[in-house]
Amino acid sequence: MIAGILGGMGPAATAEFYAKLIARTAAERDQDHLRVAIWADPTVPDRVAAVLDGSTDPYPALLAGAEKLRGLGATVIAIPCHTAHFFLRKLAADSGVPFVDMVAETAEFLAGRTGPVGLLGTRGTIAAGLYQQGVPGVEWVVPSESGQREVDAAVAAVKRGDLAGGAVHFERALAEVDAPLSVLACTELPLVARSATGVLDPTDLLADAVIRACGGKPVDARPPG
User: Fold this and answer.
1) Which domains does the chain have, with CATH numbers?
2) Which of 8, 33, 59, 210 has the most CB atoms lying inside 10 A of its own CB?
3) Stated pTM of the model
4) pLDDT above 90: percentage of residues in the chain
Protein backbone atom coordinates (compact mmCIF):
# COMPACT_ATOMS: atom_id res chain seq x y z
CA MET A 1 0.00 0.00 0.00
CA ILE A 2 1.21 3.48 -0.85
CA ALA A 3 -0.30 6.64 0.61
CA GLY A 4 -0.58 9.55 -1.78
CA ILE A 5 -0.63 13.15 -0.59
CA LEU A 6 -2.18 15.61 -3.03
CA GLY A 7 -0.67 18.78 -1.65
CA GLY A 8 0.83 22.18 -2.22
CA MET A 9 -2.32 23.89 -0.90
CA GLY A 10 -0.35 25.35 0.75
CA PRO A 11 3.19 23.99 0.90
CA ALA A 12 3.61 24.45 4.66
CA ALA A 13 0.33 22.63 5.33
CA THR A 14 1.49 19.74 3.15
CA ALA A 15 4.79 19.46 5.02
CA GLU A 16 2.90 19.61 8.32
CA PHE A 17 0.60 16.79 7.23
CA TYR A 18 3.47 14.52 6.20
CA ALA A 19 5.10 15.20 9.57
CA LYS A 20 1.86 14.11 11.23
CA LEU A 21 1.78 10.89 9.23
CA ILE A 22 5.23 10.12 10.59
CA ALA A 23 4.53 11.20 14.17
CA ARG A 24 1.18 9.41 14.39
CA THR A 25 2.42 6.07 13.02
CA ALA A 26 3.27 3.49 15.67
CA ALA A 27 6.81 2.63 14.59
CA GLU A 28 10.08 1.47 16.07
CA ARG A 29 12.13 1.44 12.87
CA ASP A 30 12.09 2.94 9.39
CA GLN A 31 10.37 -0.12 7.95
CA ASP A 32 7.32 0.35 10.19
CA HIS A 33 6.40 3.62 8.46
CA LEU A 34 4.20 4.06 5.40
CA ARG A 35 5.38 4.29 1.85
CA VAL A 36 4.30 7.77 0.77
CA ALA A 37 4.15 9.59 -2.56
CA ILE A 38 3.72 13.37 -2.39
CA TRP A 39 2.59 15.57 -5.25
CA ALA A 40 2.83 19.17 -4.04
CA ASP A 41 1.67 21.67 -6.65
CA PRO A 42 1.39 25.22 -5.29
CA THR A 43 0.30 26.44 -8.73
CA VAL A 44 -3.17 24.90 -8.31
CA PRO A 45 -5.60 27.80 -8.88
CA ASP A 46 -7.32 29.30 -5.86
CA ARG A 47 -9.90 26.91 -4.39
CA VAL A 48 -11.76 29.57 -2.42
CA ALA A 49 -12.42 31.69 -5.51
CA ALA A 50 -13.60 28.59 -7.35
CA VAL A 51 -16.24 27.93 -4.70
CA LEU A 52 -17.30 31.52 -4.11
CA ASP A 53 -17.68 32.82 -7.66
CA GLY A 54 -16.25 30.30 -10.11
CA SER A 55 -13.55 32.75 -11.21
CA THR A 56 -10.90 30.02 -11.04
CA ASP A 57 -10.92 26.34 -11.96
CA PRO A 58 -8.54 24.22 -9.88
CA TYR A 59 -10.08 20.92 -10.92
CA PRO A 60 -7.83 20.14 -13.93
CA ALA A 61 -4.71 20.66 -11.80
CA LEU A 62 -6.15 18.61 -8.95
CA LEU A 63 -7.03 15.75 -11.28
CA ALA A 64 -3.60 15.90 -12.92
CA GLY A 65 -2.03 15.63 -9.48
CA ALA A 66 -4.20 12.66 -8.55
CA GLU A 67 -3.22 10.96 -11.80
CA LYS A 68 0.46 11.62 -11.04
CA LEU A 69 0.00 9.92 -7.68
CA ARG A 70 -1.81 7.01 -9.31
CA GLY A 71 1.15 6.64 -11.64
CA LEU A 72 3.45 6.54 -8.62
CA GLY A 73 1.45 3.64 -7.23
CA ALA A 74 -0.74 5.43 -4.70
CA THR A 75 -3.50 3.14 -3.45
CA VAL A 76 -5.23 5.83 -1.40
CA ILE A 77 -4.98 9.62 -1.53
CA ALA A 78 -5.36 12.33 1.09
CA ILE A 79 -5.79 16.05 0.41
CA PRO A 80 -4.54 18.22 3.30
CA CYS A 81 -6.76 21.09 2.16
CA HIS A 82 -10.31 21.48 3.42
CA THR A 83 -11.64 23.68 0.61
CA ALA A 84 -10.34 21.22 -1.99
CA HIS A 85 -12.67 18.61 -0.48
CA PHE A 86 -15.37 20.40 -2.48
CA PHE A 87 -13.99 18.40 -5.43
CA LEU A 88 -13.17 15.17 -3.58
CA ARG A 89 -15.91 12.85 -4.84
CA LYS A 90 -15.39 13.82 -8.47
CA LEU A 91 -11.63 13.42 -8.08
CA ALA A 92 -12.05 9.91 -6.70
CA ALA A 93 -14.40 8.95 -9.51
CA ASP A 94 -12.31 10.46 -12.30
CA SER A 95 -8.91 9.29 -11.04
CA GLY A 96 -9.97 5.79 -10.06
CA VAL A 97 -8.12 6.07 -6.74
CA PRO A 98 -9.98 6.13 -3.40
CA PHE A 99 -9.62 9.29 -1.33
CA VAL A 100 -9.79 9.54 2.45
CA ASP A 101 -12.47 12.09 3.32
CA MET A 102 -11.34 14.42 6.11
CA VAL A 103 -14.86 15.78 6.60
CA ALA A 104 -16.29 12.27 6.98
CA GLU A 105 -13.59 11.41 9.51
CA THR A 106 -14.55 14.51 11.48
CA ALA A 107 -18.23 13.55 11.32
CA GLU A 108 -17.43 10.16 12.80
CA PHE A 109 -15.33 11.70 15.55
CA LEU A 110 -18.00 14.25 16.51
CA ALA A 111 -20.94 11.83 16.28
CA GLY A 112 -23.24 12.26 19.24
CA ARG A 113 -21.61 15.44 20.46
CA THR A 114 -24.00 18.03 21.88
CA GLY A 115 -23.56 21.75 22.28
CA PRO A 116 -22.03 24.36 20.00
CA VAL A 117 -18.88 23.70 17.96
CA GLY A 118 -16.93 26.51 16.36
CA LEU A 119 -15.98 26.33 12.69
CA LEU A 120 -12.87 28.23 11.62
CA GLY A 121 -12.08 27.87 7.93
CA THR A 122 -11.80 29.67 4.65
CA ARG A 123 -14.75 31.52 3.23
CA GLY A 124 -14.94 28.84 0.56
CA THR A 125 -15.17 25.97 3.04
CA ILE A 126 -17.89 27.74 5.02
CA ALA A 127 -19.84 28.90 1.95
CA ALA A 128 -19.77 25.40 0.45
CA GLY A 129 -21.23 23.99 3.67
CA LEU A 130 -18.66 21.20 3.70
CA TYR A 131 -18.91 20.77 7.45
CA GLN A 132 -22.42 22.10 8.01
CA GLN A 133 -23.77 19.50 5.56
CA GLY A 134 -21.10 16.84 5.96
CA VAL A 135 -21.25 16.70 9.75
CA PRO A 136 -24.97 16.67 10.57
CA GLY A 137 -26.36 17.08 14.04
CA VAL A 138 -23.68 19.52 15.15
CA GLU A 139 -24.60 23.03 16.26
CA TRP A 140 -22.03 24.87 14.17
CA VAL A 141 -20.95 28.37 15.17
CA VAL A 142 -19.19 30.36 12.44
CA PRO A 143 -17.27 33.59 13.03
CA SER A 144 -18.75 37.03 12.56
CA GLU A 145 -17.47 39.02 9.60
CA SER A 146 -14.77 40.57 11.77
CA GLY A 147 -13.82 37.13 13.06
CA GLN A 148 -13.69 35.75 9.52
CA ARG A 149 -11.35 38.55 8.53
CA GLU A 150 -9.05 37.42 11.34
CA VAL A 151 -9.19 33.84 10.00
CA ASP A 152 -8.38 35.12 6.51
CA ALA A 153 -5.46 37.11 7.89
CA ALA A 154 -4.14 34.12 9.84
CA VAL A 155 -4.21 31.93 6.74
CA ALA A 156 -2.53 34.60 4.62
CA ALA A 157 0.18 35.05 7.25
CA VAL A 158 1.02 31.34 7.21
CA LYS A 159 1.23 31.35 3.43
CA ARG A 160 3.82 34.13 3.53
CA GLY A 161 5.75 32.48 6.37
CA ASP A 162 4.71 34.80 9.20
CA LEU A 163 3.67 32.29 11.86
CA ALA A 164 3.95 34.77 14.73
CA GLY A 165 1.63 37.23 13.03
CA GLY A 166 -0.71 34.43 12.03
CA ALA A 167 -0.95 33.27 15.63
CA VAL A 168 -2.12 36.72 16.72
CA HIS A 169 -4.89 36.76 14.11
CA PHE A 170 -5.87 33.19 14.95
CA GLU A 171 -6.19 33.93 18.66
CA ARG A 172 -8.47 36.86 17.87
CA ALA A 173 -10.63 34.70 15.62
CA LEU A 174 -10.88 31.92 18.18
CA ALA A 175 -11.85 34.38 20.91
CA GLU A 176 -14.84 35.50 18.83
CA VAL A 177 -16.35 32.02 18.62
CA ASP A 178 -18.51 31.17 21.61
CA ALA A 179 -18.00 27.41 21.76
CA PRO A 180 -16.02 25.04 24.00
CA LEU A 181 -14.57 23.28 20.96
CA SER A 182 -13.64 24.70 17.56
CA VAL A 183 -12.73 22.78 14.42
CA LEU A 184 -9.69 24.04 12.52
CA ALA A 185 -11.20 23.73 9.05
CA CYS A 186 -8.22 25.14 7.19
CA THR A 187 -4.92 23.29 7.10
CA GLU A 188 -2.90 26.47 7.63
CA LEU A 189 -4.50 27.09 11.02
CA PRO A 190 -2.84 24.24 12.96
CA LEU A 191 0.52 25.87 12.26
CA VAL A 192 -0.53 28.92 14.29
CA ALA A 193 -2.66 27.11 16.88
CA ARG A 194 0.00 25.03 18.61
CA SER A 195 -0.67 26.57 22.03
CA ALA A 196 -4.44 26.77 21.62
CA THR A 197 -6.83 24.75 23.75
CA GLY A 198 -10.34 23.65 22.87
CA VAL A 199 -9.56 23.01 19.20
CA LEU A 200 -9.89 19.95 16.98
CA ASP A 201 -7.52 19.53 14.04
CA PRO A 202 -9.14 17.27 11.41
CA THR A 203 -5.76 16.57 9.82
CA ASP A 204 -4.98 14.45 12.89
CA LEU A 205 -8.03 12.35 12.02
CA LEU A 206 -7.04 12.31 8.35
CA ALA A 207 -3.55 11.09 9.20
CA ASP A 208 -4.88 8.29 11.39
CA ALA A 209 -7.32 7.21 8.67
CA VAL A 210 -4.57 7.12 6.05
CA ILE A 211 -2.34 5.08 8.36
CA ARG A 212 -5.12 2.55 8.90
CA ALA A 213 -5.96 2.44 5.19
CA CYS A 214 -2.35 1.54 4.43
CA GLY A 215 -2.21 -1.24 7.00
CA GLY A 216 -0.38 0.72 9.67
CA LYS A 217 -1.30 1.42 13.27
CA PRO A 218 -1.83 4.94 14.58
CA VAL A 219 -0.26 5.80 17.90
CA ASP A 220 -2.66 6.10 20.81
CA ALA A 221 -2.97 9.87 20.54
CA ARG A 222 -6.53 10.86 19.78
CA PRO A 223 -7.19 14.59 19.39
CA PRO A 224 -9.32 16.36 21.99
CA GLY A 225 -13.05 16.17 21.52
Assistant:
1) 3-101+203-214 (3.40.50.1860), 103-202 (3.40.50.1860)
2) 210
3) 0.95
4) 95
